[in-house]
User: Fold these one by one.
Assistant:
Number 1:
Amino acid sequence: MTQPPLAQPPCGRCPKTYERPGPPSTSSLFLLSPGVATYTDKLFKFRNNHWEDILSDEVNVARGVASLFAGRSVACVDRTGSGRYSIYIANYAYGNVGPDALIEMDPEASDLSRGILALRDVAAEAGVSKYTGGRGVSVGPILSSSASDIFCDNENGPNFLFHNRGDGTFVDAAASVGVDDPHQHGRGVALADFNRDGKVDIVYGNWNGPHRFYLQMSAHGKVRFRDIASPKFSMPSPVRTVIAADFDNDQELEIFFNNFAHRSSSANRLFRVIRREHGDPLIEELNPGDALEPEGRGTGGVVTDFDGDGMLDLILSHGESMAQPLSVFRGNQGFSNNWLRVVPRTRFGAFARGAKVVLYTKKSGAHLRIIDGGSGYLCEMEPVAHFGLGESGPQGMGWGEHAVSCCQDSGS
Ligand SMILES: [Ca+2]
Ligand SMILES: [Ca+2]
Ligand SMILES: [Ca+2]
Ligand SMILES: [Ca+2]
């Protein structure tokens, strides 16, 4: 995604949360209909002083863009790098009913001065109209250097890795790069650069199947992902959300599995991924403390800095087959570590979903984050690049292809 560079921060100490100024964004909210439903998907726009479903506008009903199919996940995709989002919808198809969809604004048929926003499904022309048991979706420059690619971990069929050709159309590279995993049933998924080599890696959970930790490699110009999951990490579980974040700000990413106590207890799990100079990262299991929740029917989870103290917090939702309250967890380690939070925005002022943010430190080199585009699976993370810095300070900061200097110092 091509974006203007971040504004220079004020001199002196780095701001803790670093936000690029821009016009206020107009947000929309997309809701999926579960199963083959009696009601359609909803796309709410704040219009006429309240939220209105624009999928039920006459113009969009006539265009048949509202789906009755069983949606599982949605994500925003800036497929052309214009700053305008399409919404990718991972549907759960039945045979040849209910392909994945890619909904976006049709500028020629829209009249924004009257609040009329005509939508169209461009999945077929973009090359992503496929039938599958859609589950998790994540968006970011996985194979591309800055354009948004789309990874989908599917059920009862191969996964998709839609590589952006650079013109907003995609080609499925999942099988050729080794992430198709055709016999497993994907759920939560997260993108991160675990070994800090600048290449985006993919981690996801399979429902009662081996969880995957795909490190992106390249040899002779060919990309190939290699599963480095340890036996403990890959151990099957009824997994829902998968989150990759640095909870203790020590620079090493943690991976959290939110398990659904399906027919018996199923504790959540937490791993720390420790980068090594020569060799694959070490995967160390941690005790998630109260977030173990062995009887928790975890359906979703998000990471955000709930209380603004620079330490990431974990919010878990539960339910489906039994009412359970939300849980909010705070970490209890790493309070003295430094951190930096970056909130990139598009030229229109919206959160820059799918953008890549790279931070360089003197001691530990490049750290890469991807702004969440929407679902891993049924969830959406905060649109913030959160960097734990340990005892280091940031040296410079890059966003996409636009490197900008930052400052030498940081707060704690
Ligand atoms: Ca699969
Ligand atoms: Ca990597
Ligand atoms: Ca950590
Ligand atoms: Ca916090």
Number 2:
Amino acid sequence: MAKEGVEKAEETEQMIEKEANKEPAEGGCGDGSHRLGDAQEMRAVVLTGFGGLNKLRLSRKPMPEPQDGELKIRVKACGLNFIDLMVRQGNIDNPPKTPLVPGFECSGIVEALGDSVKGYEIGDRVMAFVNYNAWAEVVCTPVEFVYKIPEDMSFPEAAAFPVHFVTAYVMLFEVANLREGMSVLVHSAGGGVGQAVAQLCSTIPNVTVFGTASTFKHEAIKDSVTHLFDRNADYVQEVKRISSEGVDIVLDCLCGDNTGKGLSLLKPLGTYILYGSSNMVTGETKSFFSFAKSWWQVEKVNPIKLYEENKVIAGFSLLNLLFKQGRAGLIRGVVDKLLALYNQKKIKPVVDSLWALEEVKEAMQRIHDRGNIGKLILDVEKTPTPLMANDSTETSEAGEEEEDHEGDSENKERTPFIQ
Ligand SMILES: NC(=O)c1ccc[n+]([C@@H]2O[C@H](COP(=O)([O-])OP(=O)(O)OC[C@H]3O[C@@H](n4cnc5c(N)ncnc54)[C@H](OP(=O)(O)O)[C@@H]3O)[C@@H](O)[C@H]2O)c1
């Protein structure tokens, strides 16, 4: 078994070398003037096309250099989010062209400053949002998306922070106006956003959190959520059994028929927020059937009904707010508040596991398998754990046909570093 592991590690190295001899893929930031083969290269995860796990490669790419207003960051850790699975599948609106380097957030050390950048110095420890390109050894991103991190915040924690905590904070406090004594329903309560929501709710007195999650997670997360239900349970009945009037806030990342269920659970003046469509992911590749089913099942809302029933319906997309709608200033204010809560030890990112860049496929498979509690992190300096026989995410060089790996969790033999 061990020998097979060594062979697989060598195979991965060869995969990198093979990629290094190819033309550089599109998608890096900077002027791209460095050619592959120069000393100025970096490693990055590249998505070669939309589809299954076999569309991911570790490649060498030209070293990016900061443009005016950008910071160059030597990356230590990157966040892996559910949206990255959807990007890989091409399961998002207006997907960008491939090849691309995935990833929307990272942490690391400032290595260079573009012209006109103020307030940062080389050597600063930072976390950042990146509009793609985060899963690389070096990243350039506009200064408006970069935040200094506290001394006692580790790089994995910092990479787990921006997307999940900012999303949770904006939904609870900017959109739904969470206050003392309210109640919140959150799906995927053991996941990255789910745990951030639970922690932020605990900063307000007397907030009741109803959560759904796979049952095996309940023991681990029971202290963060007031009432937990299995993800397949009839949660509408369960919530009404405990609180006949329903809840004040429904946070729905599933979509489909959960929209109607969520609306039916709202108390008068309650707020329903749609912020994801996890139900559309039913296998390793995009399923048009699941997409259509989810779309078809969404409750078609009549504003007159909302008026009569005193209900608020909202949507939230952090990436659109940041990268399309220019609200970086608002988000900086939110990050400041979140860092204050972190410094007061009221919130702390839950890191599920650390993975080397070479292990990105296994990391994504863990989310497909619903195995994570908290956030998965790509640790740029981690050495990959040798693969064992039967590994389910070995690179397929034979072709681009994807298999559906759903429910295939028994095969995985590479164990992550669990924090
Ligand atoms: N709108 C925004 O700005 C924004 C920002 C961040 C995240 N999101 C959304 O929030 C949701 C959670 O994101 P996250 O990054 O924190 O991920 P996450 O919750 O850690 O995602 C993994 C968990 O989701 C649950 N899940 C639900 N449907 C699933 C499916 N079809 N396949 C696999 N797992 C599924 C599983 O938990 P259980 O089995 O325990 O349910 C799984 O462990 C996603 O829908 C994401 O797109 C939205």
